[in-house]
UniProtKB/TrEMBL annotation:
Superkingdom of the source species: Bacteria
Protein name listed in UniProt: Uncharacterized protein
Region called Disordered, residue ranges: 1-22, 79-138
Regions crossing the membrane: 50-73
Record's compositionally biased regions (Pro residues): 101-124
Source organism of the structure: Kitasatospora viridis
This protein's UniProt keywords: Membrane, Transmembrane, Transmembrane helix
Lineage of producing organism: Bacteria, Bacillati, Actinomycetota, Actinomycetes, Kitasatosporales
Length: 261
């Protein structure tokens, strides 16, 4: 039954031949005809309206034919369904999915940099160890040019009176590899007798003023130089002693050596 209806519709659509020339002539007559200003009687139509109605009718017939053809083609063609591919929705990032819908993505809270605070004041280097007795004043220190292989230790002796007798002794602890490499003083070398020896676990430098010589009132310096085992050497066990004789009598000073600074 359905096949018979489809066949008949197809034949009717194919047999329909619209008279295009007649339709165009009617439209042309309607456009060129004078406009009618009086109200048309009921049941009558003006030329342009009649032409427009004819055009609409022709269009309906043509549309109907196309519709019939579409119906027939749809019926005769196999039923094929086309499904548009569905693109997967992107997965939300952890930051986006952490809150309810509409909530902006959360961001890590910035961490403030640590606040710089002034460091505790460093203690100033120890001053030279000082001693005073009568006209004598002394200060011992490690020379800043000392290295991890070699050291020099200095002793400053100041006297406010001329001295007729003076003995200066520097004693350096045998911390390992301590050996004499030299010595010096600001007073004339010929005015003193010098001995250098290892005694009692110490390297000892000893200057003795020769008889008949005098040490003027001033500031003088004595130094001992020596090698030692590799490393920063501590002068904790090093000592000195000064014994003098002047117009005011005898006096002595002693002490240790402050670290280099």
């Amino acid at each position: 039954m359905n096949d018979d209806i489809a066949r008949r519709l197809r034949e009717a659509a194919q047999a329909h031949q619209p008279d295009r020339e007649r339709m165009l002539a009617r439209v042309q007559r309607g456009v060129t005809a004078p406009a009618v200003r009086h109200r048309a009687r009921r049941g009558l139509r003006s030329g342009p309206r009649a032409a427009l109605a004819g055009l609409v009718a022709g269009g309906l017939l043509a549309t109907g034919g196309l519709a019939v053809a579409a119906i027939v083609a749809t019926h005769s063609s196999p039923d094929t369904s086309v499904v548009a591919p569905v693109s997967p929705s992107p997965s939300p990032s952890p930051a986006e999915s952490s809150g309810p819908p509409g909530t902006p993505p959360s961001r890590p809270t910035p961490v403030a940099p640590p606040v710089a605070t002034p460091s505790s004041p460093r203690p100033s280097p120890s001053a030279a160890v000082q001693a005073q007795n009568g006209p004598l004043w002394s200060a011992g220190s490690v020379d800043p040019h000392s290295t991890v292989y070699w050291s020099q230790e200095n002793l400053v002796v100041k006297t406010t009176q001329p001295l007729t007798s003076l003995t200066v002794e520097l004693r350096f602890a045998q911390t390992g590899g301590v050996q004499d490499t030299g010595d010096w003083r600001t007073l004339p070398t010929d005015d003193f007798d010098l001995t250098v020896q290892q005694a009692g676990g110490m390297l000892v430098y000893r200057w003795v003023l020769k008889p008949g010589r005098t040490v003027p009132a001033a500031e003088h310096e004595f130094a001992g130089q020596f090698n030692h085992s590799t490393g920063v050497r501590s002068a904790t066990g090093d000592t000195y002693r000064v014994d003098a004789q002047g117009p005011g009598g005898s006096s002595s000073v002693w002490g240790g050596f402050a670290p280099a600074h």
